[in-house]
UniProtKB/TrEMBL annotation:
<dbReference type="InterPro" id="IPR018114">
    <property type="entry name" value="TRYPSIN_HIS"/>
</dbReference>
<keyword id="KW-0645">Protease</keyword>
<dbReference type="InterPro" id="IPR009003">
    <property type="entry name" value="Peptidase_S1_PA"/>
</dbReference>
<dbReference type="InterPro" id="IPR001314">
    <property type="entry name" value="Peptidase_S1A"/>
</dbReference>
<keyword id="KW-0732">Signal</keyword>
<dbReference type="InterPro" id="IPR033116">
    <property type="entry name" value="TRYPSIN_SER"/>
</dbReference>
<keyword id="KW-1015">Disulfide bond</keyword>
<dbReference type="InterPro" id="IPR043504">
    <property type="entry name" value="Peptidase_S1_PA_chymotrypsin"/>
</dbReference>
<dbReference type="GO" id="GO:0006508">
    <property type="term" value="P:proteolysis"/>
</dbReference>
<keyword id="KW-0720">Serine protease</keyword>
<keyword id="KW-0378">Hydrolase</keyword>
<feature type="domain" description="Peptidase S1">
    <location>
        <begin position="36"/>
        <end position="277"/>
    </location>
</feature>
<dbReference type="Pfam" id="PF00089">
    <property type="entry name" value="Trypsin"/>
</dbReference>
<dbReference type="InterPro" id="IPR050127">
    <property type="entry name" value="Serine_Proteases_S1"/>
</dbReference>
<dbReference type="InterPro" id="IPR001254">
    <property type="entry name" value="Trypsin_dom"/>
</dbReference>
<dbReference type="GO" id="GO:0008233">
    <property type="term" value="F:peptidase activity"/>
</dbReference>
<protein>
    <submittedName>
        <fullName>Serine protease</fullName>
    </submittedName>
</protein>
Length: 286
């Protein structure tokens, strides 16, 4: 997991799923050499809008086909990362995947809890740039509605939840160690929203990637530690009870000076509102 090229760092669990298995958090000590993603197990009832994206055809059944995270923002709409639906991940356009599902209400992937809901439509943000990872979001339409209690509110532009220093929680079934230890149960990690200045200094461009404040936000702790990791992509970063980010990319996981980078949800809200005024806009890539 210690790669120097950002393209490798942002690739989802998909590409390693065949050979690895994982969790999102560990209690190991933090050091620059020892990647750690400090978090803790949680029950999905604490964050019922957190869902797993699954394709057993593509990723096998050992972890219920989980390959990315997602978050319910309406009863039939789930947000995830655009990069989760790339051809390199799925091996086919998402609308041609016959068994693409959202797993809701299930803490332990291997339990029968909750429900598996078919995805009836996928729309990748036409503004997504896979080179910079700007605009890293996609909208999935569910074949069957979730309960209203499983929907989280998106924080719009100017929401105080985006203020640097705000405490935030990220949720997912991804790597808990940075070494390919994929979780079976849902984990969360607690961190703070960081300032655009700090994020821009952490990712000034070059092999580590560029922080683009208009469509990204970053979160973590200065000394490293709590972070999202591979397999968490598309999942929620929540502050003050509202959705502010989607797991997108980072340089390794939990490294001091390399915070996690998230899709800025206020930008998603803006794009969706614009698309509502021009129905064709989100129909581009799928
Ligand atoms: N791109 C990864 C995924 O697809 C998420 C990486 C997040 N990394 C981080 N250090 N926060 O699962």
């Amino acid at each position: 997991m210690r790669r120097s090229v950002v393209r490798a760092l942002i690739r989802p669990l998909a590409l390693v799923a065949a050979t690895t298995v994982i969790p999102l958090v560990g209690a190991a000590p933090v050091s620059a050499d020892n990647v750690v993603v400090g978090g803790f197990p949680v029950d999905v009832t604490q964050a019922p809008w957190t869902v797993a994206l699954s394709s057993r055809d593509r990723f096998g059944g050992t972890r219920a086909g989980q390959f990315c995270g997602g978050v319910a923002v309406a009863r039939t709409a789930v947000l995830t990362a655009a990069h989760c639906l790339g051809d390199d991940v799925l091996g086919a356009p998402p609308n041609r995947m016959r068994d693409l599902k959202v797993i809701a209400g299930r803490t332990d992937l291997l339990s029968g809890e909750g429900e598996e809901i078919a995805v009836s439509d996928t729309r990748v943000n036409p503004g997504y740039d896979s080179g910079t990872n700007a605009g890293d979001f996609a909208v999935l339409t569910l074949a069957k509605p979730l309960p209203q209690s499983a929907v989280v509110t998106m924080a719009g532009v100017g929401d105080p939840a985006y203020a640097p220093g705000t405490e935030a929680l990220v949720y997912g079934w991804g790597d808990t160690t940075g070494g390919g230890a994929y979780a079976r149960g849902l984990h969360a990690a607690r961190m703070r929203v960081l300032s655009d200045d700090l994020c821009a200094r952490a990712y000034p461009g070059g092999p580590q990637g560029s922080y683009l404040a208009a469509s990204m936000l970053c979160a973590g702790e200065a000394i490293g530690g709590p972070d999202a990791c591979q397999g968490d992509s598309g999942g929620p970063l929540v502050a003050a009870g509202r959705l502010i980010g989607l797991v997108s990319w980072g340089n390794g996981c939990g490294r001091p000076g390399s915070p996690g980078v998230y899709t800025r949800v206020s930008e998603v809200v803006r794009a969706l509102n614009a698309a509502a005024g021009d129905r064709t806009r989100l129909h581009g890539r799928s």
